[in-house]
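TA notes, week 10

Several of you asked for a full example with nothing omitted. So below is the full record: structure tokens for the whole chain, then the designed sequence directly under it. When grading your own attempts, check the secondary structure regions first.
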């Protein structure tokens, strides 16, 4: 009881940290959504995490499973959830009441950065300019609850239908904005082309509407196509959308496909809409968590948001977060953001130095005194230590907030606790300049000859400086932060990794790849080359790390069967799971479903020979067609020309060295 009273007392003291974290975030150049903070207990936090950060979701067993897993993780693995925040305007953040004040401050600064990312990243903007996800999810929850309690609808049938749809929740086209499929014209069955005119009559459209949308020539062309048409014209990534538009349910009693019930159509579309809403969060996990970790650190340590008595506890918890095992999005994201900032700031310094008389890209390392350079770009003492220089600051200096300076001098602003209030964005950028931090002091001298030549070649400003001092006096301290905000606006994890993961980054942060070897039956390190590391990481994030499966034909073999195609990238499907998924898809299509894929096969003799030679056998890639007709699953071999178009010819995720191969 005493602990709970103490926790509630801490929660009541959070009003000032919330206000000041928001003010500081904006001073640092962030532009977050407004955030509503809620204090919850341990059980409520676990429930919110299970619900994906929202208070109301549709009835389904998956939430109970997630709740149980989250609770056991806390009990047995030592994991703790400090907060959860959702993408909404305003955002809603939930803080656990048992957090220490240091943890609460860290969470609040972390949340403000997340809210900035939600508000300014274009991938989040594709769903809605002004999201109101909490209301949308609550409407969905109420609607599905009504279906489940409807005496004419079997509750178990609704839950099974949800199970079928959720199997495909990541099979959408996340690179295009969400568009609902709910108009009457959309419901025209395109593959039943011989009856197109008949279907139009059933829709009871006016002659004027029919004349504007469907020409006589088009109707005649459909009626003349006696061989049946394959569709869609191009592979369709939005499998859920395709099933919503063309799918049917299978009536076991009648042993045939029948039109979906209205509630089935609505549930499918609601879950599809939710999949599009959550897609940007899955697409930007590394960027978003790294972004939040970066600004949390800048505020908590760089601006002493963590008090002297809180710093050690904060540092300990931050180290645990960044030190978590596995592919850690916080650690990877923070490292790349730091690298982006450092490389951008380094380029700014290098460009200025290369315009000094006597310094060229060829003699750069021999001519430049790097220790002197670091001393010259150190933040001015007045900016670095505001409290001791209040009387020395010039209110006309663009780095100084004149109004706040006056208030600090009169005692209205507590400059001791909040020195950042006296500075502008430009002043804070200089105060936090990355290249002069102890861990980065070798970054300028580490510039490669290749980069120097590249920078020199593309410098468009041909003005010259007479000395190093003159050149560095014009360095833009905010260039790194400005570049980071530009990247935050337009990138997702795949493009982020593709553009900014370099050999220098891999070497500095000790990344490597490993592979399973047939010859030894275990895993071995295979490469430290950045192209290989990038390939492995890209595999984890492309299409949410899931296989890319598209609709290739909705009238396969002119039998109204569905043909899905796995866009093979060198990584095989789990055939057992693929069979199970096809059974689910059958329930949404109502007719037989097929899946084309490519598998790797190893000849047993080749494997034995490779083991003796301590080499890797070369697999043979062959085509497979998996089919489910409602009764049984069959697998047949396909000729290579039937699947050749599915094989990526410019991507190979295998990083084993050539000399390993037999």
């Amino acid at each position: 009881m005493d602990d709970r009273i103490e926790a509630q007392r801490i929660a009541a003291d959070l009003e000032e940290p919330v206000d000041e974290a928001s003010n500081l975030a904006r001073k640092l150049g962030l532009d977050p959504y407004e955030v509503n903070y809620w204090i919850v207990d341990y059980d409520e936090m676990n429930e919110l995490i299970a619900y994906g950060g929202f208070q109301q979701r549709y009835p389904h067993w998956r939430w109970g499973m997630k709740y149980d897993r989250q609770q056991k993780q806390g009990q047995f693995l030592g994991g703790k959830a400090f907060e959860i925040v959702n993408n909404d305007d305003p955002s809603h953040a939930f803080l656990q009441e048992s957090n220490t004040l240091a943890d609460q401050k860290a969470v609040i600064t972390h949340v403000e950065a997340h809210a900035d990312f939600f508000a300014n990243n274009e991938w989040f903007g594709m769903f809605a300019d002004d999201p109101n996800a909490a209301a949308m999810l609550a409407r969905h929850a109420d609607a599905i609850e009504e279906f489940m309690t409807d005496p004419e609808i079997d509750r178990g049938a609704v839950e099974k239908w949800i199970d079928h749809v959720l199997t495909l929740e990541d099979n959408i086209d996340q690179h295009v904005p969400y568009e609902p499929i709910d108009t009457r014209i959309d419901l025209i069955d395109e593959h039943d082309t011989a009856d197109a005119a008949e279907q139009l009559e059933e829709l009871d459209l006016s002659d004027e509407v029919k004349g504007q949308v469907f020409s006589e020539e088009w109707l005649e062309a459909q009626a003349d196509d006696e061989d049946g048409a394959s569709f869609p014209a191009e592979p369709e990534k939005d499998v859920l959308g395709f099933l919503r538009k063309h799918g049917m349910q299978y009536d076991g009693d009648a042993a045939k496909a029948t039109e979906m019930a209205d509630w089935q159509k609505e549930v499918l579309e609601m879950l599809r809409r939710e999949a599009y809403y959550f897609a940007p969060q899955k697409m930007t996990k590394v960027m978003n968590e790294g972004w939040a970790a970066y600004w949390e650190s800048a505020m908590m340590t760089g601006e002493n948001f963590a008090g002297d008595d809180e710093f050690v506890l904060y540092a300990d918890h931050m180290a645990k977060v960044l030190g978590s095992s596995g592919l850690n999005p916080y650690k990877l994201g923070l490292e790349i953001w730091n690298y982006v900032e450092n490389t951008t700031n380094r380029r700014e310094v290098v460009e200025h130095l290369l315009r000094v008389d006597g310094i060229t890209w060829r003699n750069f390392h021999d001519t430049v005194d790097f220790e002197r350079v670091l001393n010259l770009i150190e933040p001015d003492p007045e900016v670095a230590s505001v409290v001791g220089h209040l009387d020395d600051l010039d209110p006309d200096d663009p780095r100084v907030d004149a109004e706040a300076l006056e208030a600090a001098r009169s005692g209205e602003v507590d400059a001791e606790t909040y020195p950042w209030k006296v500075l502008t964005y430009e002043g804070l950028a200089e105060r936090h300049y990355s290249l002069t931090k102890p861990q980065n002091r070798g970054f300028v001298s580490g510039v490669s000859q290749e980069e120097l030549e590249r920078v020199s070649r593309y410098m468009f400003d041909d003005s010259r400086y007479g000395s190093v001092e003159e050149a560095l006096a014009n360095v833009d301290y905010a260039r790194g932060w400005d570049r980071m905000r530009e990247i935050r606006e337009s990138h997702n994890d795949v493009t982020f990794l593709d553009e900014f993961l370099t050999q220098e980054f891999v070497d500095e942060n000790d990344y490597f790849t490993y592979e399973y070897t047939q010859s030894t039956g275990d895993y071995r390190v295979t490469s430290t080359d950045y192209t290989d590391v990038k390939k492995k990481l890209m595999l984890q994030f492309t299409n949410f790390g899931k296989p890319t499966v598209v609709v290739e034909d909705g009238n396969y073999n002119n039998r109204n069967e569905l043909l899905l195609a796995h866009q093979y990238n060198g990584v095989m499907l789990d055939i057992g799971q693929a069979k199970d998924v096809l059974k689910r898809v059958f329930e949404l299509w109502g007719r037989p479903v097929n899946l084309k894929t490519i598998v790797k096969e190893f000849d047993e003799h080749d494997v034995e020979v490779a083991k003796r030679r301590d080499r890797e056998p070369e697999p043979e890639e062959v085509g497979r067609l998996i089919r489910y007709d409602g009764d049984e699953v069959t697998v047949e071999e396909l000729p290579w020309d039937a699947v050749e178009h599915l094989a990526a010819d410019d991507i190979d995720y295998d990083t084993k060295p050539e000399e390993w191969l037999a």
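Residues 329-353 form the longest helix (25 residues). Use that as a sanity check on your answer.
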